[in-house]
Amino acid sequence: MRSFMLALAGSVFLAPAMHSGAAAEPLKVVASFSIIGDLARNVGGDRIELTTLVGPNGDAHVYEPRPADAAAVARADVVLINGLHFEGFLSRLTEASGKDVPVVELTRGVTPIAMDEDGHHHEDGDGEEAKADDHGHDHAEGEDDHAKEAADGHDHDEAGHGHEHEGGVDPHAFQSVPNVTIYVRNIADAFCDHDPAGCDGYRQNAATYTARLDALDAEIRAIIGSIPQDKRRVITSHDAFGYFAATYGITFLAPEGISTEAEASATDVAALIRQIREDKASAVFVENITNTRLIEQIASETKLTIGGTLYSDALSDADGPAGTYIDLMRHNAETIAGAISGS
Length: 343
Known about the structure:
alpha/beta; 4-stranded parallel β-sheet
């Protein structure tokens, strides 16, 4: 750990000094992972210089930062993160940078979903993991104090605790399109704060992109709405789809909690297999960021066919089926509906 920190710190001294914000200079933006990077690009356009730390198909839960990442953070005018303890690696970078770089939590204003002590969602009596209000924003019943604090957007010592979200709140708020409209607004606010001259452009880009998100939200609701109610129970690798479940009315079961770092125990897997058989799950899916072995085992023991790949915490490569956030959400909805209709 000490050698890692020295390497990061050393890279910072080689980094050029931050620009003073002259109009000709692009706004230097660091995004923590690929989904955030795509949102930043849609709002910032060619007025920003974007660096994304965890790229396509990368798993932010287990990401180990590099010295080059510390240099990028040291140069940045603004760092965009998900928040809700998603980026456990962040504090090592900000500490090594030696700079007081503005860090913006994009989940500020989102109502988080509470988790149990094992990092799984609570299900209510109807099998739904959480409730969504009329605007599609997610509300967990029995939301704990931690969740309420996080909704205020405060910094909760994200650093160094990598995966404290177990037993706290689900950080995967980007799996609900209405939540991402909040992310987009927060990005535009941050860019306007740090580049007032470009604010009109940022606001217009955000409005245009939000209109596309609203259309996407309606499309997903129609796709999921076409699935019979008694078929809306599926299996994924880790518990990343709670906000999708709450917003669009489908239940996800997973052997792993909301972090991919901790492997599911044999007892957990056996219990899930029993639940699948009792509740008659309709399909099982692998994820782009997780090992397929466990899902293949579950599919074999339950006689379910693997319905395809879902994109949970990262985009695909640019030429893949989920190269943008909009493509990711549409692909997931269509893949789920297609697998269930063919089951």
